[in-house]
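quick one before i forget lol
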Amino acid sequence: MSDASDTGAGPARHGEAVLDREGLAELVRLLRRRGRTVIGPTVRDGAIVLDELEDADALPFGWGVELEAGRYRLRRRDDGAAFAHSAGPQSWKSFLHPERVRQWSADRRPDGRMDVTEEEQPTLSYALLGVRPCDLRAIRILDRVMTGGRHQDATYLNRRTGAFLIAAECTEPGATCFCVSMGTGPAVDAGYDLALTEVVDDTGHRFWCRSGSEEGAEVLAQLPRRGADDATRTAAGEAVSAAADRMGRSMPPVDLRTLMRDSLEAERWDDVTARCLSCGNCTMVCPTCFCTTTEDVTDLTGDHAERWRRWDSCYDLDFSLVQGGPVRPSARSRYRQWLTHKLGTWHDQFGSSGCVGCGRCIVWCPTGIDLTEEAHALHQEATPRESAP
């Protein structure tokens, strides 16, 4: 790095630099000055949630999490790290593809006619800070689902277009994480404007920062920073590599698409659905589940009506309702639909798996159902049949 870039007076050479906590704080301030709404992790209500950040002090410095199937707990850390925690109950889907959106409203005139007003799209400019590699991949999957076909979703497109993505590589996987199995982490690959790798060691607390876009390089050039040094690069790389070796879960080492296709009549579906409540929690917390329905509401007078779009779940009995009844009336058929679509037929629709290995569905299942366990069980059930003469 040149002296100018080391002191923050010139452009970041090769698009990388080292930020300290003040550099991270200035990043939040700079993005807010540019008119962006900065969303990032913060501690609230006993969890690390995503919310608007007014400054970097709201980040969860010194907080980690303990995860298991059906269990989530905050815990204090000794190192003061800001991004050493696993996925919380929300994903970035909550902001890009919100849970409820009003589509239009209608009001009755005195003469009995109706005025129908289409809901205007708000002007939004998001900066998403601390996007995990698995969630970064989830956003790219949603991009294909919501905007990659003939009919683009206007709400998603409005919120996604121009969003500034700041990835945070994973150095602290949880007990329910399996991004390595899905090829989505713990290192970032593409799709970010800036990427951070947090390092806390005897040398200090710092962030190895790389730009992945022209705007990212421009933002990085305006931050207080110093040149990227080999010691920081090495420490960051080792932390991410170590995370890859500490995944709490894994998928069976088989073609999951083929496994799902060939397991439609497996007995394991009866076992898992004996435990499934069909509550839909897994679809609500999943960063790629996208299904919606519409509902119309009126006031008590009947003079005002609204149409809302809201998230829906394939676990809902009415989700596949047609004349004569639902297509999938049993819990077995609904769980099978979710898992085989997520791991299998998603490829046929969108060209990739719909699972990124974040583990949220495992953590937030009230009965602790683990889709990696189910995939292993399906594989074990199928293996004797495959090897039989």
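fyi The longest helix spans residues 331-350.
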